[in-house]
Amino acid sequence: MIPTLQRPPPSMRTSMPGGAAGRTLMGLLLILWFTLPMIPVALWAVAGRWHAPAVLPQTYSWEGWSSAASSGLFPALLASALLGAGVAILATPLGFMAAVSIRRLPRRYARPVEGILLAPLAIPPFALVMGMNVVLLRAHVPAAAGVLLLLVVTALPYTVFMFRSALAGYDDRFEEAARSLGASKAQSIRHVRLPLLTAATSRAAFLAFLVGWGDYIVTLIVGGGQLRTLPMTLASAASATGNEQLTAVLSLTVVLPPLALLTALLLTRRHGRIR
Amino acid sequence: MSSRLELKTISHRYSDAKEDVLKDISLTVEASRSVALLGASGSGKSTLLRVAAGLENPAAGKVLVDGEDLAGTPPDRRGIALVFQNPLLFPHLNVVDNVAFSARMAGFSRRRARRQALEYLDLVQLQDFAHRHPWQLSGGQEQRVSLARALARQPRLLLLDEPFSSLDSRLREDMYNLVSLIREQLEPTIVMVTHDRREASVLADSIAVLDTGRILQHGPVPQLHYRPDSLAVSRILGGLNEIPGEVTGGIHSSALGRIKVQDTVDDGAAYLVIRQETVNLVSAGTGVVDGSIASIKSMGAHTLVTLTIDNGSTAKPAVRISAEVVGAPDLSIGELVGVDFEKSAAWAVNS
Questions:
Q1: Are residues B268 and B181 in the same domain?
Q2: Does the complex come out with an ipTM higher than 0.90?
Q3: Fold of the CATH domain A75-229
Q4: Residue where a domain stops, chosen among B167, B201, B225
Q5: Which of A77, B231, B270, B304 is most buried when burial is the number of CB atoms within 10 A of its CB?
Q6: B88 CB near a chain A CB, below 8 Å?
Q7: B312: three-class secondary structure by DSSP
Q8: Per-residue pLDDT tens for B75-122?
Q9: CB count, 10 Å around CB of A193?
Q10: What is the distance in angstroms between the Cα of B76 and the nearest Cα belonging to chain A?
């Protein structure tokens, strides 16, 4: 008799201890875990005067925002966005190609290659950067190119992993089915392969973007102070005292754009259909 | 939407294989007929479908549809729809858009494609599921949608590659009824691959038995069961009784005695093949031969009784014969009973 393929019962999919109440509680705790640290930052961003032991700011003002604007917020935003986009544009296709190649390799070669590609995750960034900085300086690689190069390497494990898991669930017969349903080779790529890999591509690109957007160490050491990205501006504001409003505003500008991007990604994924 | 399919002397070998997976296969399927390719896994039956669908280029031979040679015609221009074992519904499309896929690829508007898709969903009784996503369907529903999607292409030929093998037995019965309904309404030419001889018998007009890349026999369902060309075909069709003996002038002599068989069998060593379903158990002394019961195996509503022929001969190994009888007969091991069958339908195959 052929075993029947059945979906796991709902109880298996939601078998967290504590039942519905436990799940709700865990969910709320997780939300708190992520939002709680942001509350003081959000308040500082609009605070005028806020001295201990007051629980809330005594006065509110936009002072933090105007001082952020005058201390190079917009060029820094642009620099970070460009760096993030650059890393995403390079690391995403590289990750895709690497994942496709690993998939085609015999298993005994695939594992070590995969290990090498994931290695940057295991090496402390500081060690990687210090070592590479010497090499890049000796090779006369321009600072910005060096930063980009190192960040692409750092982002590669994320993009490879994203495409690896997407391709593991990808069945080439989807395209064969499309062909036998009357789709030309180009149509089957456009209407089947690309949409099926869109989610993985956008997730990979998003993670790669985050590597560039939020980087501090590589930009600081390899960039040698030439690249004024958002984290650099934030760090210099945070290292001085009495800059709480400015630091809070810069922190928000680091955190909010990726969140907006993530929300946009989640929203667009709901609207997949044949175009 | 039905055409005649001719496969002419097709051979094929996968690039990494040592042996041909298909060896000089010729098969004709008349328009609106349904043929089952029956064989074990590795017999080449799925490859033959892939060749017909254009997903595999044969090393030699031709695929003709209504006399037209399809060499060089890509899969999307063949008008041949293939339903896979796995439903392969596109996960990024909902049910109706999956079924509308072929019409969209052909350039019809979304509105028109969906209207047509709904008709086919109605045919498979899933119109209410049009706006669900594939992952919200059960296995049986997914396979129904997959079938509707293939039919919506309005293919000249429908190829089914073990499409029901992952379903449980009750769902499979439902699918058989659905295929019958589709055959009545649309009269498509169907070539299906299966390793389940019962499925082949239920769904097809004729069965082609494949073994290691060759077609052993192609014929109507009863012929394959009762008049097999070889012992291999008899076994693949589930025949259990192979009585060894000699044929001389159309008479088979064995532990069962002298029995007239078909004229076409050559003189010499031959096996008498008798379907276990046609063997009856009677009181000792009243049948063709007597035997003592060696085993009794329940098959659900039927029981398989195997006897050792007892005619005083000391032939080794002892000749055995099986009977598939209705119900659970009141018999015990070792008991002596008579074996009876229709002698006029006796059939022998040369060994």
A1: no
A2: no
A3: MetI-like fold (1.10.3720)
A4: B225
A5: B270
A6: yes
A7: coil
A8: 999 999 999 999 999 999 999 999 999 999 999 999 999 999 999 999
A9: 15
A10: 4
